Amino acid sequence: MALRKLALLSAFVCCSLLAGSKGSRAEYAGGTILQIPDGCSGSIQAVDEQFFVFYSKKARWRVPYDRINLIEYGQKVDRRYMAAVLLSPLLLLSKKRQHFLTVGYTDEQGRQQAMIFRVDKTDIRMILVALEARTGRRVEFQDDEARKAGKG
After folding, report:
1. How many separate domains does the chain show?
2. Is 23 in contact with 122 (CB distance < 8 Å)?
3. Global pTM value
4. Are 106 and 67 in contact (CB under 8 A)?
5. Residue 44 lies in a domain
6. d(C-alpha 66, C-alpha 85), whole Å
7. Per residue in 63-76, pLDDT tens?
8. Which pairs count as long-range contacts for 127-132, CB under 8 Å and 24+ apart, including other chains?
């Protein structure tokens, strides 16, 4: 019985810590929103009841979930050529992956808008699951590698 109470308490503490988090680290890679400068680092959140949120020191942007009509996930894979030249040819075997999330939506004037974020690899699954749950839309994957990384 004490073990069960301890497990419930630890689950409650973990959920409380996650609920109070500042969101997932992300960088605005580009899109149609001119108010957010390209390369702006900040956080994205999909835990709000009504809005998908990007916030940083330079910008803040909210999109209602019911206006989101596209969720796409993809990866950019690069070989580490420069490091291989400078350090070791074995580094040619390693790959550097960047994870990109595209969120498409219609604004208040009915125009299509898009935001592309570079998301940390440790946070991408959480964001994809939360966006699917909040919007009711399925994530579109750019390729099989992205599907494996996004679905686990």
Report:
1. 1
2. no
3. 0.71
4. yes
5. yes
6. 49
7. 999 999 999 999 87
8. 127/24, 127/44, 127/46, 127/101, 128/71, 128/73, 128/101, 130/46, 130/47, 131/46, 131/52, 131/68, 131/71, 131/103, 132/71
